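Researcher: Good morning. I'm working through a list of sequences from a screen, and I'd like to move beyond sequence-only analysis. For each chain I'm collecting a predicted structure so we can compare shapes side by side. This is the next one on the list. No need for commentary yet; just the structure.
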Amino acid sequence: MMKRAAAAAVGGALAVGAVPVVLSAMGFTGAGIAASSIAAKMMSAAAIANGGGISAGSLVATLQSVGAAGLSTSSNILLASVGSVLGACLGNSPSSSLPAEPEAKEDEARENVPQGEPPKPPLKSEKHEE
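Model: Good morning. Structure tokens for this chain:
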């Protein structure tokens, strides 16, 4: 239960903390859209699609607003809730533990276990010397 609660807390904090980092890495900064970034390419494509302008409420406009001013309190709460649920689900998954190694049967040879004495090198023959 504690593992699940810790995973939920980490998931919520990670979700809220990752948004500004990811948006900044994409080029949506507080000073505007960074030149030669993914954000600049998105803005260019949106402007071409809309005949030269960026429409209010579009994806590019929303991401730039979040990049410049950050998320609202209600958006942070929603994002933290979703991150917590995902973190709790991932923290409770059985794939987080390592799978057990299959046991070899007693009559089967095991890997990397000596099976008696090592093979002997071939004998040298005097007949084949030239």
